[in-house]
Design goal:
globular, 72% helix, mainly alpha, 229 residues, 12 helices
């Protein structure tokens, strides 16, 4: 019989995930400012958007010459999944009022993973808050550090950092593709976006590819319920 997980273990696991993910913000900060954003703009994105894959998606569109509005729409499309995370987390967190609004900002892949499936509701809340707060603080701090460093780099194309934007985005996205339907959906969206590149303005292919992913995913890709392995 498996021994129950202690609160201490939940906190330590959450800190491990939070530190590992939070430190990656330095990459976003460096790529953002070396691609044309100011340090303040990079920090504002991390503070207000606070969802790594969406931030890199926005940066990828802008770095490719697309309009900021196109980048924002791409980021929103990618962030739609957080809405479903919120629905899944609500029974675990049991929050109301201002606390519920504050928690909504921390609804990301990692906090969801560290919350659902816990046998005890209070451990689900421990996992959520310790993971969310740790990532939020470190992500914003390392974005600032990376942003200041990125300003010193200059033109990202001179040392290949323009390609690093896409690589960093894929690095964050790949762990989310944990099933064959999700991977096939990602390939479909990528194929649609790649096919549109010669015929559409910068930023448009990824928006259309994202829309295809959302529409097809909602219709055909099964979603796991809370507590599923």
């Amino acid at each position: 019989m498996t021994e129950p997980v202690s609160d201490r273990e939940v906190v330590l696991d959450s800190l491990g995930v939070g530190i590992g993910v939070g430190l990656y913000g330095v990459t976003f900060g460096a790529l953002a400012t070396s691609s044309g954003l100011s340090v303040a703009q990079a920090c504002a994105l991390s503070l207000l958007a606070f969802t790594g894959a969406s931030q890199f998606a926005f940066l990828g569109v802008v770095a490719a010459g697309g309009a900021p509005a196109a980048g924002a729409l791409t980021a929103v499309l990618l962030g739609v999944r957080n809405t479903f995370y919120g629905i899944t987390l609500a029974p675990f967190l049991r929050l109301r009022g201002v606390r519920r609004l504050a928690a909504a900002h921390f609804v990301i892949d990692e906090t969801t993973a560290m919350s659902i499936g816990r046998e005890q509701p209070h451990q689900a809340r421990l996992g959520f808050w310790w993971t969310g707060i740790t990532i939020f603080l470190l992500w914003n701090l390392t974005t600032l550090i990376g942003g200041v460093a990125g300003e010193q780099i200059g033109d990202p194309r001179a040392i290949g950092l323009d390609a690093a934007v896409a690589a960093a985005f894929l690095g964050l996205l790949w762990p989310r593709l944990d099933s064959m339907p999700a991977r096939l959906l990602a390939l479909l969206a990528a194929a649609v976006a790649a096919g549109l590149v010669p015929f559409t303005p910068a930023g448009a292919p990824i928006i259309v590819g994202g829309l295809v992913a959302v529409l097809v995913g909602l219709r055909f890709v099964p979603h796991r319920e809370a507590g599923d392995d």
